[in-house]
Amino acid sequence: MRVVALGAVIVMLAADLTGQAIKADHYLDIPGHTYSPITEAAPYVPGFNGISGSSHLSYVTTLKLTLVSVDLSDFTYGDRFVYQVLVENTGGAPALLPWSPNPGAFAQTVRRMPPGFRSGSLWLEAESVESVEPVRLAMLDGQSLRGSAEVPGSLLELAPGRTALIRVPAQWSATMPEGRAAVLRQPDGAVRLRAVFAVESPAGDGSSGIATANYVPLTRSTNAITVRVVPRELR
Known about the structure:
seven-stranded mixed β-sheet, 1 helix, 3% helix
């Protein structure tokens, strides 16, 4: 299995919203990534099966997730934007993460599960800001990640104590219609954004890390960022 190993160079990243420089051992820029076409000759792409944002809340993972920045603070519903998350392995063993946002790199002529395949998804949840216990209002559309032994560089082995920063594209488009209504009902349009990272691997692959055959970790960021969202007709 080929994975992205920790190099000697620490990646220096852009400043966050506080102006503080961010350091990470690995960096993935999803908007700036190179993408391969999916053709009729090889139309099948294995993917993320999907984990409900409200399920698996009791699972414990060694990953710590921080929502570092959102590139805007004032939105019209439907706007596209970019956010950054920092992933830290707080455990004592390496965590094997899917690290490619390029579905075309995994395109196949027949349906099959590639060796060592691992999939995951990053998304944002919108919460209320005024409640003592924040109410989850909506889950925004997610960004899929994939990894396989067949695709060089598509798996990241995140060593204990190491970090990875991911730059992720997003849009104000809730996965369910009621999510849009819930967000736009908030006083003055204020909501809090929280990042979520879920990783899964196929049953029986024998791999170690944060996912096993019967264990689906779902990690929410320890922090949230408050933004304002209004309907387009109010602009």
